[in-house]
Structure formats: structure tokens, C-alpha cells
Amino acid sequence: IFYFLAAAAVLSLVVTDRALPETLAPEDRVPVNTRSLFAGLKVLLADPLFMGLTLIGGCGMASFFVFIASAPFVYTGHFGLSGVEFSLAFAVNAIGFFASSQIAAQLGQRFGMTRVIVYAVTGFVLIELALLALTLSGYGTLPVVMLFLFCGNACLGLVIPSTMVLALDHHGKIAGLASSLGGTLQMIAGGLMIAAASPFFDGTVTPLVAAITFCALAAFALMKLLGIGKETPTNGANA
228 has which bridge partners? Predict the structure, then answer.
């Protein structure tokens, strides 16, 4: 696995160097130094819309991290899948995420990123609440869990990139820094969620579903708190 990751990292560096040239004119480029970094961070951290959208995406990322961390134990221990069967089951859920993320841009261009976020987050929370209810009622079978997680992860594939695009919308001059900060905060959210939920993991499906549902509810609450969907964002302070 680590040899494969190392090879993928080297390939990514080569592709970045060869296929992604700098698009900004020299006079528009921001120098990379401590002063410009701290100035940009001050702007981003003080923008409630940027932080709110980043945290909505962070909740989505956290739920996916929870799934990655606990799925091996649930699928092999609770449901009794073999290593190969687990790989296939895991791939099915991951496909939902990555497939929908490929069409997020097209949906955003057609319907607007705000609408995509609203429907995706709403779908995410409804799917996970339904799965939690089924699990608590004793219907959390492998097919049911796989189906609902597939649909929930498909919503995540729309939530995470769309929130990042909308968060960057008013920070074009520091888009690189904003993207880096947003990605970092989302990864931190994922790590913290795993740490917070891990004491409750017992190898059964209920803690996994409950933790993912909590992330979905948090994302929905943040969306409502920001007022996303009530009107199109017009500046960095309003949604």
C-alpha cells in the first residue's frame, strides 16, 4: 500500500509540474512569505461565510473519515465479510462519493452552487436519519447499510467540492491560500471526529451510523445558521 502511495505521490508531482502551469500574470501573483500568509489568514478566518462553508464541508469530510476508520471492523467483524468482500463493499460506498463529485461542477453551473449545497446537505441528513432509524429498529442489515451509505456518500460528493467553490468565491486573489486552509480545516475536522467517536465504536453498525448522522446534523445546522439558500451570497459576510 505504501509503495503504491509513494508512486502516486511522485506521479502527482510530475503531473502538477508538467500539466498545471501558473495561470496568473506575473504582476498579479502574490509572493509566498510570512507577511502575505498571515495577512491572508486574517482575512479568511474573519470571514464567517468562508468559515461556515468550510466547516459544512468539514462535517462531510468528518463523516467520510468515520466511515473509513470504522468500516473495516463493522464489515468484517459485524457482518462477517472476507477481505475481498470488504474491499468490494467499501468500493461500492466510495464510488458513490467520487462519482457524484465528478458532476458537482456541472450541477453548480446549471442550478447554482447554493442550490446544490442546500439539496445535497438536506439529502445527506435525511438519508442518514432514515438509516439510523432503521438500524435502531433492528433493520440495519448489510444491504440496507450499503445502500443508504452509498446514497449518503453520493450527497457528500456534492457537498464537499461545492462548499469549497462557494467559500472561494470572494477570495480570488488568495484562492490558493483559501483552498489550502479550507482543506486543512476539513482534514482536522475529520481527525477530531474520529477521536471523539472512537470510544463508542464497538464493532457493531450502530455507532458508525450514529456518528455519521451526527456529522450530517451538524452540517445541516451550520447551513441553516448561515442562512444558505435564503438568498444568494453577495459578499464575504452574508449568505
Answer: 231
Residue-by-residue pLDDT tens, the chain, 239 positions: 899 999 999 999 999 999 988 887 887 777 778 888 898 899 999 999 999 999 999 999 999 899 988 988 999 999 999 989 999 988 888 888 888 988 988 998 898 889 999 999 999 999 999 999 999 999 999 999 999 999 999 999 999 999 998 888 888 788 888 999 999 999 999 899 999 988 888 889 999 999 999 999 999 999 999 888 775 444 443 43
For the chain, the farthest-separated pair of C-alpha atoms sits apart, in whole angstroms, at 63
CATH architecture of 40-226: Up-down Bundle (1.20)
> Which region holds residue 31: left if phi is over 0, alpha if psi is between -120 and 50, else beta?
beta
Residue ranges per domain, the chain? 40-226
Residue 75 CB neighbours (<10 A): 25
pTM of the shown model: 0.84
